[in-house]
Amino acid sequence: MSVIPFDQREGVIWFDGKLVPWQDATLHVLSHGLHYASCVFEGERAYGGAIFKSTEHSQRLKKSAEYLDFEIPFSVEEIDAAKRLVLEKNGQVDAYVRPVAWRGSEMMGVSAQHNKIHLAIATWEWPSYFDPAQRLKGIRLDMAEFRRPDPATIPCKSKAAGLYMICTISKHKAERKGYADALMLDWRGQVAECTGANVFFVKDGALHTPTPDCFLDGITRRTVIDLAKRRGFEVVERAILPGELEGFSECFITGTAAEVTPVAEIGPYTFVPGAITKALLDDYMAEVQPKARAA
Ligand SMILES: Cc1ncc(COP(=O)(O)O)c(C=O)c1O
User: Fold this and answer.
1) Fold of the domain spanning 132-294
2) How much distance in Å is there from the Cα of 38 to the middle of ligand 1?
3) Neighbouring residues of 24: CB distance < 8 A, sequence distance ≥ 6
């Protein structure tokens, strides 16, 4: 992966309806989105030139903004078309796609009733979220100190930038200790998710995954649940307590960036990436290919 900083790369970025040279896609320091986190985004992947579940991501982006009380001034169809255009102009077929929408600069207090809503879309090559060698053996997860907050305190269904503050802190702490990522509990002390991915466990041939009642019900999570059911695996969505981790044989995480990534350790608990994880990893990688989708 290139180490060129993200603001110094080449290519084009779609910015409020126009394609602009990559390094010109800037915003003013007095932007409401920067000061008050009135900002939502998406993370998507294109495989073989087609974005996997593009429309679902565009719909989620629009919904995320609504939860933050703003409306993105582009339709789902326009956002889908814009993403295709940026990919094409950047000459990419396998790429990560990042739409981001935020409140502009017209008002700079907490209230920003009439601020312009901006939308930008960038794409870049991002082969593997985790170190590829470590990924296949299973990554190691720390237990995060921060918990996913009570839905009464945050718009938990929004993919809002502000909700990632505790994710970055948790991931940094985990990385400093040599882990790849951290598992977060929720405000009740139940297992929730990783800092950028959902989590699944295997016990006696069945999949167990936390009910997404205070964190993102990921598009990859739902895809993997469908794939598991297609294979005839039982999928149990329920509250999972950290004490139960000892009784699970396999564990993996799911997300657009992480795809399906086996987990070998969570704190003191160990897992062996096994047949079910491997089957779902293979099924997912087949499912995202445009040929499988056209068939
Ligand atoms: C906090 C968090 N949870 C879960 C997910 C998985 O969501 P998806 O599968 O839609 O990418 C992501 C990734 O976007 C995330 O950032």
Assistant:
1) D-amino Acid Aminotransferase; Chain A, domain 2 (3.20.10)
2) 19
3) none
159 is catalytic: yes
Which CATH fold would you assign to the domain 6-124?
Answer: D-amino Acid Aminotransferase; Chain A, domain 1 (3.30.470)
pTM, to two decimals? 0.96
pLDDT averaged over the chain? 96
Q: Which of the following is catalytic: 159, 171, 177, 278?
A: 159
**Residue 247 CA, ligand 1 centroid: distance in Å:** 25
Give the span between the Cα atoms of 180 and 129, in whole angstroms.
Answer: 10
144 lines ligand 1 (CB under 6 A): no
The rounded Å distance from CA 47 to ligand 1 centre is: 18
The Cα–Cα gap between 279 and 263 comes to 15
Give residue-wise pLDDT tens across range 121-172: 999 998 877 777 777 789 999 999 999 999 999 999 999 999 999 999 999 9
Could you write out the DSSP letters of every residue in 30-61?
Answer: S-HHHHH--EEE--EEEETTEETTHHHHHHHH
Residue 177 structure tokens: 């200790």
CB 219 less than 6 A from any atom of ligand 1:
yes
CB 202 within 8 A of CB 208: yes
For the cut 80, the answer to whether the pLDDT of residue 244 exceeds it is yes
Q: Are 6-124 and 132-294 the same fold in CATH?
A: no
Q: Residue 295 has what pLDDT?
A: 54
